[in-house]
Specification:
Elements: H1 5-18, H2 22-38, H3 43-48, H4 54-63, H5 70-77, H6 82-87, E1 91-94, E2 97-100, E3 102-107, E4 111-116, H7 137-145, E5 151-157, H8 163-168, E6 172-179, H9 182-194, E7 200-203, E8 215-220, H10 244-256, E9 257-272, H11 277-283, E10 291-300, H12 302-312, H13 319-331, E11 334-345, E12 354-358, H14 367-382, H15 386-391, E13 393-396, E14 401-409, E15 412-421, E16 429-431, H16 434-441, E17 444-448, H17 449-460, H18 464-481, E18 484-486
Parallel strand pairs: 5-6, 5-8, 6-7, 8-9, 10-12
Antiparallel strand pairs: 1-2, 3-4, 9-11, 10-11, 13-17, 13-18, 14-15, 15-16
Helix pairs in contact: 4-5, 12-13, 14-18, 17-18
Bound molecules: S-adenosylmethionine.
Length: about 500
């Protein structure tokens, strides 16, 4: 750990006593200063903490990134001895005072997470090669996307600060967390102890430390950044060439999961000229026997991508690094890089469903519930052929909207496009033809779909069997995306 066990207890006492929690800070600062802090404008927060009581000092040091008088910092951290706080790196000397040495973030209702100070807060200072990442966008994406159903055992691969493990402990009886970096494991152990949690912590390369073991839930925010395979920062670079880390995790998944188990991880994949990116990613799961749902959330061009990741480690002005990275992309015909969430499930069926798709729209949180529901819908679809699908009753999704585009002509409006839009959940939109529109419009949960189709066939003068046959895959698709939901009971 970064501190002794007694030191961690003392730090917890100091933070609790001062009410250095998300709520405590928000109450102290009020909405205006809190809003300012979110935009890195600390002026109002500094005015609200001028009296430098313990909470005020902690806010000034760890939120507003100020250098504060030693006596005030020592008082704010007491009973943690200042010597131990300095030795553990929590604070560091700067000018004639002390400033934060580590990022000590109040998180959730009453948690704290320890991580390194980001590159942006220490311009000019190179990041440690085993830099421990704080809670950024990717971290939150995985937190939000994780299926939060109760499980016996959960594994966090590449735990870093331990923030994923903190969340896992809310719904898993036993949590295991691994990392290649000894330094990261010290941070994770300290985060666990500070929050009164107890995880099994193991050191090693990806799945090696848990070889032969299975878990009900596995999550990983791995070092997914793609490039030539050189490692300068372990939180970002896996040492694998290209997007191989994503494929490696997929290949490892069948041996990691219990029956019915779920694995979720973040990944980057390359879009290679002349190759379908979806086929490339789907290929990762061939032969695994796992159901897979991969959603691409973002796509970046190589230049923007390299810039982003060089800025992340404070190396944006290294033209050679940038050129070498871009050369690698050119040599491998990489036109773009996709980012997304991989969700896998060991369903035990011999006809696994693999779906790789773009999902760029904003999704109604929590994404984890959407993932769980997607797999539930696959369970419904898997055991039904077209006949069985049409025998069910369905109801259109809550609040489903129809958007029309029409052109005014001599005979009034002529409809060009009709789009169904889900205002909730995954917020899919989809262009549909009038027959599908009528089908969805009539889905009020009362009639079996086959009977609904018979009415439609009569109204449109089509043979009912023909319509039923054509409807099978369309209905499956509408169910998979949640436009219509089966009515049970
Ligand atoms: C992107 S950070 C994620 C940290 C944290 N889990 C989160 O979600 O914020 C990736 C983590 O994986 C660790 N890591 C890098 N290479 C690894 C490897 N080969 N095996 C295991 N862990 C690795 C890094 O040390 C780092 O802590």
């Amino acid at each position: 750990m970064l501190l002794s066990p007694a030191g961690v207890d003392a730090l917890r006492t100091a933070l609790t006593r001062a009410d250095y929690t998300s709520n405590g800070i928000a109450t102290r600062l009020g909405p205006q200063a809190t809003g300012g802090v979110a935009r890195n404008d600390f002026r109002a927060a500094l005015r609200a903490t001028e009296d430098r009581d313990p909470l005020g000092t902690l806010i000034r040091v760890f939120i507003c990134e100020q250098t504060e008088p030693e006596a005030a910092v020592a008082a704010a951290l007491a009973p943690l001895p200042l010597d131990e706080a300095l030795a553990g790196g929590l604070v560091e000397r700067h000018g004639d005072g002390l400033r934060m040495g580590l990022d000590l973030e109040p998180y959730g209702d009453d948690w704290w997470v320890l991580a390194d100070v980001p590159a942006s807060a220490r311009p000019g200072r190179p990041l440690h090669s085993e830099h421990v990442l704080g809670i950024g966008g990717a971290t939150q994406t995985l937190i939000g996307a994780t299926v939060r159903r109760p499980v016996e055992t959960a594994l966090d691969l590449g735990t870093g600060s331990g923030v994923q493990a903190l969340h896992l402990a809310t719904h898993a009886r036993r949590v295991t967390a691994t990392d290649l970096s000894e330094r990261a494991l010290r941070f994770a152990a300290t985060t666990a102890a500070l929050n009164g949690q107890d995880w099994e912590l193991l050191r090693g390369d990806m799945v090696a430390p848990v070889a032969g073991r299975r878990f009900d839930l596995v999550v990983s925010n791995p070092p997914f950044v793609v490039g030539p395979g050189t490692t300068t920062h372990v939180y970002r670079d896996s040492g694998r060439v290209g997007d191989a880390i994503g494929a490696e995790l997929a290949a490892a998944a069948p041996d990691l999961l219990t029956e019915g188990g779920t694995m979720q991880y973040l990944a980057n994949w390359v879009h290679v000229a002349g190759e379908d990116w979806g086929d490339r990613v789907a290929g990762w799961f061939a032969g695994t026997g796992l159901d897979a749902w991969v959603v691409q959330r973002e796509v970046a061009d190589p230049m923007a991508y390299v810039n982003l990741w060089l800025t992340d480690v404070g190396e944006a002005h290294d033209p050679q690094r940038m050129a070498a990275w871009l050369d690698w992309f050119d040599a491998h015909k990489v036109e773009a890089i996709g980012f997304g969430i991989v969700s896998l499930r060991r369903s035990g069926h011999d006809d696994p469903m693999v779906r790789v798709e773009d999902l760029r729209q904003r999704v109604e949180p929590p994404m984890g519930d959407r993932v769980a529901a997607w797999f539930d819908r696959q369970d419904f679809l898997r055991v039904r052929d077209t006949d069985a699908l049409l025998a069910e009753r369905y109801r259109a999704a809550d609040g489903l909207q129809l958007r029309q585009e029409a052109t005014m002509g001599d005979e009034g409006w002529a409809v060009d496009r009709q789009v169904l839009a889900m205002p909730h959940g995954l917020r899919w939109t989809e262009e549909v033809d009038p027959l599908v529109l009528a089908l969805v419009g009539g889905a009020d949960g009362r009639l079996a779909l086959r009977d609904q189709l018979a009415l439609l066939a009569a109204a449109h003068d089509v043979a009912p069997e023909e319509l039923a046959e054509a409807a099978g895959p369309i209905v499956a698709h509408l169910v998979e995306r949640g436009f219509i939901e089966p009515v049970t009971g």
